[in-house]
Amino acid sequence: MSSDTIFTKIISREIPADIIYEDDEALAFKDINPQAPFHCLIIPKKPIATINDIQVEDMPLIGHLYRVAAQLAKENGFADEGYRVVMNCNANGGQTVYHIHLHMLAGKAMGWPPYTEKLKV
Ligand code: 5GP
Question: How confident is the prediction for the chain on average, in pLDDT?
Fold first, then answer.
């Protein structure tokens, strides 16, 4: 699978995005189709296609993405009221861009579970 996705182009500034955080390892920008009053994506600059492709050496990087989420929550006033951080994987997880990303959603109480059909177990 090619590692070149729309997120690679956002990292390289080939396409624009509303970037709200950047460091050597990570980038965060507003989701183009927000599902909450505050919805940003936190991505590693290293292209990793899915959760299934995360290697042992990526563990500090994945932890760092969560630290960035917590920092953004604090900076934007959501740390105490709460927020949701989620990473989708492959088709059933709802993944559409194959460069891992944390969705950070905030500003409204979230529902649970994340599907609308009643689950038969
Ligand atoms: P996924 O479905 O893979 O978990 O999430 C991909 C997310 O990327 C979606 O929420 C979608 O709205 C967002 N997205 C897709 N293309 C772009 C884009 O070009 N710019 C931005 N800012 N977000 C995008």
Answer: 95
